[in-house]
Each structure stands twice: as C-alpha cells, then as structure tokens.
Amino acid sequence: AICRGLAMAVSPERAHAQDITCDPGDKEVRSLEFRGNHAFRASDLEVRIATTESGWFRRHLGFFGTRHCLDPDELPLDVLRLKKFYHDKGYYDTQVDTLVQPLGHSVVRVVFTIDEGQPILIDSLSITGLEAVPNRAAIVAGLSLRVGMPFDVGQLAAELDTITARMRNTGYPDVELLRDYNVQYVARKASVSIQALPGPRDHIGAIRVRVTPVDSAHSQQIGDDVVRDLLGIRPGDLYSDQKLIDAQRGLYQLGAYRHVEVALDTVQATGDSLVTLLVNLREDY
C-alpha cells in the first residue's frame, strides 16, 4: 500500500493537476532550469513535474502573462518524479537536488541539478515463439529496442504493443506475449526476453449482419448483401484488427447508421482457423 501511494503521488499524470496558481505571499517561479541533464532535454523533464515557470511575457517583460508560483510541498515530490522518470529509462542511480534562488521580491528561480549516473544497458535481447509465423521478419522489423541501448521499461512495453498489433493485423487475434528481464545492477546490464504465443492463424469465415431498423414503423432499408459488399472484407481473408476498424469507419461515414460495430463473434466460432465476423448496425433516418 505504501509503494502504491508513492507511485500515485509522483506519477506524471498527476503532476500538473497540482495548485501552481499564485496567492498573496507566494513566490513566483520566474525561471525554471535543469542542470546536468544530458540524456534528456529540459522539455522532456518539464512535463514530468508540477513546478512550472510563469508565461513568456511574464518572464521576459516582467508584466502581463500567466503567473505560476512555487508550491513547497510539491518540490520534493518533483525530485521523486524525476528520479522515477530516469529509473524507468534505465538510469537507476540518478540523483536529483533542488535550489531555489531569490531573483527579487517574491520572485525565484528554481534549479533542478541532476547527476544522471550510468544507465543499465541491454546486454541480450531475444524474441522467441515466432518460428512458425510466415511473416516473422515483418513482425520484428524496425523495433527500437536493441542490444546496447539503455533498458527502458516504457520502450519495452511499446515494443510489446507493436508486435501484438502486427500479429493481430496478420491473422493472429489470440496472440499473447510474455516478457521477462533480468537486471544486473553491479554489472549495469540487463537481459530481455519476449516469448510469443501466436495461437492459430485465423481467416474470416461467416459474416453475420444484424440490423436494427430506425423504429418499429420502418423495415430494414439497406440489405445484408449490400452491407457485406461495403465492408471491404470477404470470407477467406486473413483476420486483421485494422481491417475491422476500417470497415467500421467506412460504414459509419455513410451517414446511414446511428450505431456501427464490427467485431469478432466470440460465441459462434466456426473452427480452429476460421472466425465469425459480427456486424451490428442501427439504422438512422
């Protein structure tokens, strides 16, 4: 419970929800600086913290513009936010300190001094389970995570999403990915492994169309066969998430339906390598 509370307190999504408005007696942040950051730009760090400098006109002209003031309670949390950001990017030893310098009456400069330390580097990276996948080369092409890079857990998650999307767009709607990694802190290296469980390669079998007329006084206006022609998906096609999204968007853009849903029918599966497509439509006037 303590760890979860800390994670919520320093999460970047919560940082800019804090109170940085100015009340009587508050100190305006006229300047915000980061020193010692080499791996990441100041703009990458600014969005992770609550402390925010005043607007451009206020900083450069001394009047007009938005005033942002220092929240002393948030400053130590900003330190934790920055350390967490660096940790997630593979910099496990990063140290952060703060300095608040007076610039005038109720005006300050806030400086974050960062000692990044050395990152944990990826020493080995393996992707298994794709040996029987016909388009394996395309599935793993152009991935950003490579040996020699800092071990970035966010980038690892992004690579899993990329592989999953590519698999699901080439016939594998049931794919699962398992990840594992081992960090050796003293040696500053990490081994990463991704195991794919592809499941069967599915093709489209039956396409079932269900249309709800606009009201009880009207009959179905567009026939099921016309709907199937408009889908752009045919029985025998490889399953693809993107094709379902495109079909759903195309039907909705006709302006003939209030509700459009194109999805797998998980109840009426037709076989190990065939999936049933369910098209649910509610007609408009």
List keywords for this structure.
alpha/beta, 28% helix, three-stranded mixed sheet, 28% strand, 285 residues, 9 strands, 9 helices
Question: Which geometry do the CA atoms define?
Answer: flat
Element pattern in H and E: HHEHHHEEEHHEEEHHEE
Helix content: 25-40%
According to DSSP, the number of beta strands is 9
Largest sheet: 3 strands, mixed
How many helical elements?
9
Task: Record the strand order, biggest sheet.
Answer: 1-3-2
- Average of per-residue pLDDT values: 89
How does this model look, in words?
Mean pLDDT is 89; it is low at 1-9. A three-stranded mixed sheet has the order 1-3-2, covered by helices on one side. A three-stranded mixed sheet has the order 4-6-5, with no helix packed on it. β5 and β6 form a beta hairpin. The longest helix has 16 residues, at 153-168. With 285 residues, the protein is α/β, with parallel strands linked by helices. It has nine helices and nine strands. It starts with a helix and ends with a strand.
Topology summary:
Layout: H1 2-10, H2 12-15, E1 28-35, H3 42-46, H4 56-61, H5 75-88, E2 95-104, E3 107-115, E4 121-128, H6 136-140, H7 153-168, E5 176-184, E6 189-197, E7 203-212, H8 224-231, H9 241-252, E8 257-264, E9 274-283
Parallel strand pairs: 1-3, 4-6, 7-9
Antiparallel strand pairs: 2-3, 5-6, 8-9
